[in-house]
TrEMBL record:
InterPro entries: NasD-like, Rieske-like_NirD, Rieske_2Fe-2S, Rieske_2Fe-2S_sf. It comes from Gracilimonas mengyeensis. This is Nitrite reductase (NADH) small subunit. The lineage of its organism: Bacteria, Pseudomonadati, Balneolota, Balneolia, Balneolales. GO terms for biological process: nitrate assimilation. Keywords: 2Fe-2S, Heme, Iron, Iron-sulfur, Metal-binding, Nitrate assimilation, Oxidoreductase. Pfam families: Rieske_2 (PF13806). Residues 11-112 form the Rieske domain. It comes from the Bacteria. SUPFAM superfamilies: ISP domain. GO terms for molecular function: 2 iron, 2 sulfur cluster binding; metal ion binding; nitrite reductase [NAD(P)H] activity.
Amino acid sequence: MQTTQNVNQWFKAAKVEDFPKNGGACVKYKDQQIAVFNFSRRGEWYACQNMCPHKKEMALARGMIGESENEPKVACPFHKKAFSLQSGENINGEEEAVTTYPVKVEDGYVYIGLS
Ligand code: FES
């Protein structure tokens, strides 16, 4: 679950305009790939691990974002497993949850909260 309480570092990921509206992009932090989503329709930002737990594909940043009962989610482009962008849980299957990260936008830059 994303919460800013445990954040001990805000990683400056990229400029706001580097992220497509209502879409995602992958950023690298050390050896981690993090999928960042500009959910502009909701006026919200989300981030989660880029690796889909299903077949370990680095793919979630290229997934389709949407909502299920007002919960923001991303569907993997490979086999359409969907993960909550809030809790990280697999909404339509039994896959393990993905790690989600808090996101903040300041002065035109997107930051990812790491703990
Ligand atoms: S690899 Fe993501 S749903 Fe299969």
